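Notes from the pairing session

We agreed to fold both candidates in a single pass and log them together. This is the raw record for the first candidate, unedited. Please don't reformat it; downstream parsing expects exactly this layout.

Candidate A
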Amino acid sequence: MRRYGKNPDEDDIRVRPNRKGNRPRTSIRPKHEDAADGMVLTVDRGRLTCLVDGRVVMAMKARELGRKAAVVGDQVALVGDLSGKKDTLARIVRIEPRTSVLRRTADDDDPYERVIVANADQLAIVTALADPEPRPRLIDRCLVAAYDAGLDPLLVLTKSDLAPPDKLLETYDALGMPYVVTSRQELEDGTATGRVMELLAGRITAFVGHSGVGKTTLVNTLVPEERRRTTGHVNAVTGRGRHTTTSALALPLSGADGWVIDTPGVRSFGLAHIDPSRVIKAFPDLEPGTEGCPRACSHDEPDCALDAWVAEGHADPARLYSLRRLLASREGHDVD
């Protein structure tokens, strides 16, 4: 080790040359004003399939974006090779502001949020009436996530040939949300397509549901294979076979201005990230009644002002019951 005297001068100290890796960093980022606009269709292990001017382009996230990740439905700006040819790769250099974000957590005590879809405006909650049995708790949780994200909910009931829909529909009647009922035969022969399409036209709709409820079968009837081929086989998410809904996938509706986003089947829908105070926004008839609530009211406690508001006839008691049912679902227990 080289040692210097007590009072070394500048000639005694060797200054290392400024190497490439030691260049000072800058916060200035290129603007990429010539970047092309695109939409993220699916994401697989760091590779993003995007639609750019009608072409399917493979891309990766630019380093300057840091930890910010693009998800299905994101509107993005891309540079590089945008030809869409095999073995080409573009770069996503900008993620545009999102109009909505649908999120969930793995469990209610998991603080890590998972963004499922960006920029959707409708959430289709698909549930079978039998085989498997309906799971109202899961439906409730999806509704809470939809209301929190600002998405309009749509209830899609399948397999009506195995069980009637009346009882389940009655549970959600007070919410006044649209619904559609289909049977297995109607999905197979396509007769249900028109009814469903009317509710999806002109919208970006994310489909969620438990595995085995017929969600992907329904999406396939809405977006036939011929239509998928026009988007460059984006259904083959990994490039090694057909899409099996292991990641979200955006597809254009056939014969209508709109998109459907098929998502993987879920076993649970954690809501640890949801602020209960935002759920009330989906109940405009009840929200004025919360002005007399104590601070941080859960809307399900003795001092909640909503009880008096409803008792005075300002709102339907069934609406308050529905609100409390959804909030209870977030907390992991049922309403009596």
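Candidate B (folded immediately after A)
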Amino acid sequence: MVTPPTPEPSTGSTERRQFLGLLPLPERRYLADALRTETVGGVLLLIAAATALVWANAWPAAYHSVLDYTVGPSGPLHLHLPLEVWATDGLLTLFFFVAGIELKREFVAGELRTPSAALLPVVAAVCGVALPALLFNAVNSGAGGHRAGWAIPTATDIAFALGVLAVVSTHLPSALRAFLLTLAVVDDLIAILIIAVFYSSGIVPWALVASLAGLVLFWHLHRHGVHGWYLFVPLALAIWALMHESGVHPTVSGVAMGLALRCHREGDEQYSPGEHIEHLARPLSAGVAVPLFALFAAGVTISPSVLREVFTQAMPLGIVLGLLVGKTAGIFGGTWLTARWTRAELNPRLRWADLFAVSVLAGIGFTVSLLISDLAFPDAPALADRAKAAVLTGSLLCAVVATVLLKLRNRHYRQLCDDEAEDDNENENDNEDNGQDEGRADTAG
């Protein structure tokens, strides 16, 4: 059981807010359900990435022939696309749709609903994006640098991180997992803003206006209680196709539709519409869309010469340093400084070293980093492949270092998880006792 916040020693009545304290039972249950799906998806993601690497290095001609195979309807929307593009523009839209719902829920019911609780993860996410970008630009400021890839090391991949935790059997208390999830949600929002602003080109006004009109219709129908997948799925596909034609990256439409859903409960609802749709869409995103994207995106040539280039050329080295050093220093430093400034008190059963280990784990930037690698170098596939090799290398280094740090405290984490499970059982027993008491009172009445 977690000790309650300690009052300030000298200045009287103000209590210091506790950081990474025990979450309320409903939030822990939601978190456990969400992370269970993400963990399974993370393991599938690891398998897909490993399969892509083996396939691309053992049978490169077959791998690239599959990537270049084109399918889809021809016509004014130009949807006759290679499978690689369908994976990047189509499958990841579902990933960002779920991210949009997560973000909306965090704003109305999660850690981001109050400014005081939101400040730490938001600052951590912003610093975790800014410092890798600055570090990348510093490394690439000289001759031979490629500043177009500045956004590649800025992303956090929650599914990959949880997959690593599952593979190495490392326990992690719910408060640290919640911080990691909230951090990743804010990180996804920043990533989609970066993609929309910096990696959109050749805007087609009529398609953009039509897509925005579709989003307004989507929001209007949802808010007025209209139901039926047979109505919303075709509308969502039309919004996506128009956004794709507009020149804005189509994953932006996924986030916009996720944010349009209502995520607060009304009346006697057990789940809000957003929560219900997220429950249906998350397994498809984590278990199908993201692993398939990894299968099509992670197949890069790995050889001694490629690995040597990763650590000797400015662009890939900037990505590795951005993920391993920039993300860690940005997230940990931003959180520590904000906690000191706001006088937030760390949960006494945790240490700042625990947050440092989670910050290293957040340096895994697999999915969105691979996406931005393609967007940053659309006319230079060799540079994109070198960037992807750097993403894989940096993410692997973050996974190894985080695993070592978390393993050192795993016995303590297991005890915290056991205490949380005991607290859950006590709350469930109390609820059952209260229900029985109410039943007896009704009978007596």
